[in-house]
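User: Now give one protein:

AI:
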Amino acid sequence: MTSLQTLPAKQWRWLDHSEQGLDYSPLHSFAYDDTLCESVGKEDSFPIVHTWIHKPTIVLGTLDSRLPSIHRAIEQQNENGFETIVRNSGGLAVFLDPGILNISLIVKDTKTFAINAAYTFMWNVVREMYHDAAKEILAGEIAGSYCPGNYDLSIGGKKFAGISQRRLRGGISIQVYLAVTGNGSERAEIIRHFYQIAGGEDSPATPKVKPETMASLTELYNRKMTIADSEARMQRVFNNHGITITPTRLSSNEESRFQKRLSLIDARNKKILGYEQKAR
């Protein structure tokens, strides 16, 4: 089984944007992940942890962008104060806000990290982070949740996290979004309403979201949870396996690649949406 304990690397970099990310679009975070994938893939860098949080944003999958009334739905959400973007990895729509902690574990693409092994790797990390949950953290699709998949993570049948991955230039970014604070069903209701406008409530092509299937860790633990506590839990998991994670910044070469990646992602986003929405 792939876990932190089985990895040879005992030094990791940590790019922490859990505060900085509130000032820019999630397009930046996807560009950071692509940049760091290349660094790790080329063996120019140790493996990397990238943590990030954003202001309220609807992040669409490519399939979502093809819904017939997508622009009307985007315009309405803009009026509600929510940015809408299209990410560069698979899946369907998710909702980001300051109560959602995103963690990317960026490793070299090797035989160790076949597709399912990479998903299981992140699942194991999350299980260790929240080992004190009242019930076991399970992986498996939660029907009715937004962006459903085989690696939805749930406690007591309520989804609080989802895992995705992106492979680029010899590196893999294994990403998880964790609903730490706030109300999971309210977030799901935003996505449900978005789909109703974008695709039509009665259309079979419109994803069906049931808000009651989703919750935050604060709700599941029935006590206040924080982003800082979740990051501390993550650090402890690494430390328990003898791994040091060191705060880092981009190197000058990485900064140059980041700017190029951001331009590409921004251009792709606007092309897919056919909509002038610049990365801020």
User: Anything to note?
Assistant: Residues 276-280 have pLDDT under 50 and may be disordered.
